[in-house]
Amino acid sequence: MSESAIRLRGVVKRYGPITAVDHLDLDVPLGTCVGLLGPNGAGKSTTMRLLTAQSIADEGDLNVLGFRLPDESKQARVECGVVPQLDNLDVTLTVEQNLLVFAHLYRIAHADRREAIERSLRLAKLVDRRATKVDKLSGGMRRRLLIARALVHRPRLVLMDEPTVGLDPQVRQELWALIDGLRSQGTTILMSTHYIEEAQRLADTVLIMSHGRAVAAGPPAQLVREYAGQQALEVYGPPDRLAEVEAEALAAGLRTRRTGTSVSILGVDGGRYPADGERRPANLEDVFVLLTGEQID
Ligand code: ADP
């Protein structure tokens, strides 16, 4: 068995003139949670679709749980749990019935089905809702059910495409707790997200994508040290003053980023900088903006 749950090398996917995934290398070691982080259009969903063989790569090697894609994609899928970005639950069925359909699809032996469903219900904290029709569930519960459904057959690898997109912050926190629980039980997870905090909190390793390419990969803390240093200086002021500060920082060989009404000067560790501002620890958002050029919404 390979050490990696996922290993991609030189993967390319084109849509006409657009190269959605451009010579991507990706490793997901067994037992880790890897976050695919990037702005909209970076190629995250395309990468997820390649991994589930919903799309076929134009070039490159794809290996999932020791199976080569696309030739052995059926074998790989049996051992994967997939949490889609779009909710495709059957709204005419109850929570339990939705899980039962997947227990059948994944050919869980009849004798094991009940326990598999109960385990999934417990994991997603939906035991009390087992008999509720899906169209009566809140948005957060539906998301939890989507995750529970992907886990019903105890997959060795879980693929989550933007698991908390469009949810309010409180529901997002609930899902983070659920995903973090899976991670601490040793489930291997690949998760795409454009929420930096989500990647920072949940991922052991983050791969930052931009225009189909991997622009950096590593544990969040390491990426921060490597690209943004230890400390940043946040300088507030009117636009003219901020432009001046940016020019001065640039002349001093420092990197900056605009954050609404302020400028962050990165990598000011230890040294002095001739501007008044608030020092703060550098963070993954600094790295993201530096590498992708994208502001966060
Ligand atoms: P992300 O998930 O990071 O937002 P996507 O993988 O959805 O990015 O998209 C990457 C690029 O590929 C974008 O430019 C997008 O418009 C393009 N793209 C994705 N899917 C298709 C498709 N089916 N047909 C044409 N272009 C596509």
The helix content, as a percent range, equals: 25-40%
- Biggest sheet descriptor: 6 strands, mixed
Number of strands: 14
- H/E topology pattern: EEEHEEHEHHHEHEHEEHEHEEEH
- Cα separation of the termini: 41 Å
Task: Report Rg.
Answer: 22 Å
Write the layout of secondary structure elements.
Layout: E1 4-15, E2 18-29, E3 33-37, H1 44-51, E4 59-64, E5 67-69, H2 73-78, E6 80-83, H3 95-105, H4 110-123, H5 139-151, E7 157-161, H6 169-184, E8 188-193, H7 196-202, E9 205-210, E10 213-218, H8 220-228, E11 231-236, H9 239-251, E12 255-259, E13 262-266, E14 278-281, H10 284-292
Parallel strand pairs: 3-8, 3-9, 6-7, 7-8
Antiparallel strand pairs: 1-2, 1-4, 4-5, 9-10, 11-13, 11-14, 12-13
Adenosine-5'-diphosphate binds near residues 41, 42 and 43.
